[in-house]
Amino acid sequence: MSTSAAHPPAASRFAPLQNDTFLRACWRQATDHTPLWLMRQAGRYLPEYCATRARAGSFMGLATNTDFATEVTLQPLERYPLDAAILFSDILTVPDAMGLGLSFAQGEGPRFATPVRDEAAVAALQVPDLDKLRYVFDAVTSIRHALKGRVPLIGFSGSPWTLACYMVEGKGSDDYRLVKTMLYSRPDLMHRMLEVNADAVAAYLNAQIEAGAQAVMIFDSWGGVLADGAFQQFSLAYTARVLKQLKREHEGVAIPRIVFTKGGGLWLEDMAPLDCEVLGLDWTVNLGQARARVGGAVGGPGKALQGNIDPNVLFAPPPQIAQEVARVLDSFGTPHLDRSTTGPTHIFNLGHGISQYTPPEHVSALVEAVHTHSRRQRGL
User: Fold this and answer.
1) How many domains does the chain have?
2) Is 90 one of the annotated active-site residues of the chain?
3) Most buried of 114, 131, 177, 261 (most Cβ within 10 A)?
4) Is 324 inside any structural domain?
5) Is 166 annotated as catalytic?
6) Beta-carbon contacts of residue 4 (< 8 Å; ≥ 6 apart)
7) Which of 20, 24, 28, 53 is catalytic?
8) Hey, which residues does 304 pair with through a beta bridge?
9) 166, 220, 257, 293: which one is catalytic?
């Protein structure tokens, strides 16, 4: 997108931001409460989402329609006082645009019609024409307008390695046998695929930023299935390649970048040098220890941390949810309170996506507990 007369600068295109708590926490700035958003917060646990999906006819019918994607992105914000919205889309839009034939069967998850499993298929891969993903960028712009500055909008992509898992396996996997066979038997092919994926993800996220995304997140959902050594070589290196190419700002506004590696807690020190502002954590990681390892000191460099309650906590009654929320917030400890400098900060989230079976009223209990307890931590 250009910033010609047809596309004036964002300052005039979009309403001013009313709640910047999430962005402040990304930049390790003091906030009045711990900001909160949920992975997969627009989804099947909400009856209104299911109704919209039924009208759309399919998951991709939902994701590729600007009006539907906008509607479902805003649905959780109508119910809950969350501190950020996340684009409604899927991590597999990029390989779909590469021509792999993505489909979603009801209750079965994603499948590719033509998986990438041999030398010829890898050789044919290239960064897709971004016009094939125009529906995503149109949705970003539409959502920004619909939010009217209420909260920031997060754009996202799967990591190069996570995309490769689906591209080779052809669907989700229990053992990652096919992709790991390629990794160990033909590392040259795997590196070639990951290079293409990394450059495609970077271009995709930059286009989301140009369309209006105010932060971007890389989901390395399957980085944790790799062996030590393989993670650094085949996942981390290509996440770094994406980050190196990302826009640091757009139209004078800085864009924070988040990296979430499920199962990556043991490699936090390896991830600390990544050119990003926030590291997401799953529920296996102690937040206080993570803060000590990579959170930095007041006035010094470090990573903001995001996470990390177990999504299954949301099946417990509200009093237990509040108890677990307090435990997670207390494990991080009191965030720094000095507004004149930067320091350790925390963005509350789940350790992975919310389950479709979650009672919506239990999410209300979670949000209320996070905002209440985190204010109490700050003496507010």
Assistant:
1) 1
2) yes
3) 261
4) yes
5) yes
6) none
7) 53
8) 278
9) 166
